[in-house]
Amino acid sequence: MKRFWTEVAVDADRVVTLDGRPVRTPGRVPLALPTDALAALVAAEWRAVPETVDPRAMPLTGLANAAIDRIAPASAPFAAGLAAYGDSDLLYYRAQTPDPLIDRQKAAWDPWLDWARARYDVHFETTAGIVHRAQPTATRARLGEAVAALDPFRLAGLSPVVTITGSLVLALALVERAGDADSLWAAAHVDEDWQAEMWGEDDLATQARAHKRREFDAASAFLSALET
Q1: Whether 41 contacts 118, CB under 8 Å
Q2: What's the sign of the alpha-carbon dihedral 122, 126, 130, 135?
């Protein structure tokens, strides 16, 4: 779609407007945002559009569209899908060797598991290796309740963080502002960083990581804007 507007604004209902007309989601619903901060960020994406609209350059708009069109009408099953990551979280599975990697995982991951234990009153089963180890039923239920309690916009922001990091614990820490984005990103990439140190960086992997980091940062900004 070619850019056809001159003025981007936000109306009294926090709907982004183009030359006075509301932006609509793909489902044809007005793009109304829940906070002034998020409305300002989404409006800024529309102001930054050059001659042609590229949805890939508008990640916050995309997350808002998902919250309104896809998640709000069926938030329970969407939340359940994210909560399922709590049974196979990245932080549960530790290296068997070498000792320096074991120590690095412990230093990066144990504090976040300790945070989740205290925050949600749960117990985690960790293991060395990659064979699945089921988490206690009470743990899965409690984490599921925590995710289900989130509104559609927070679920929209949580989703890419969970899938990019492979960790529900780290994603919930970001939602609850228990840690900053850089620290959580670093924790999620301990193994990847180790491999790069040992064997060098691959160009394609580096490009893929940069793309994931942009998505991660967009989700982090989206979630942060929901708190102001």
Answers
A1: no
A2: negative
Sheet-wide strand order for 8-10: 8-10, 16-18, 21-22
Helix (H) or strand (E) holding 29: none
Distance of CA 23 to the CA centre of its chain: 24
Q: Which two tokens stand for residue 124?
A: 């985690």
Are 128 and 94 within 8 A, CB to CB?
A: yes
Q: Is 11 left (phi over 0), alpha (psi -120 to 50) or beta?
A: beta
- Residuewise pLDDT in 10s, the chain (228 residues): 899 999 999 999 999 999 999 999 999 999 999 999 999 999 999 999 999 999 999 999 999 999 999 999 999 999 999 999 999 999 999 999 999 999 999 999 999 999 999 999 999 999 998 899 999 999 999 999 999 999 999 999 999 999 999 999 999 999 999 999 999 999 999 999 999 999 898 889 999 999 999 999 999 999 999 997
Residue labelled with tokens 């990659």: 130
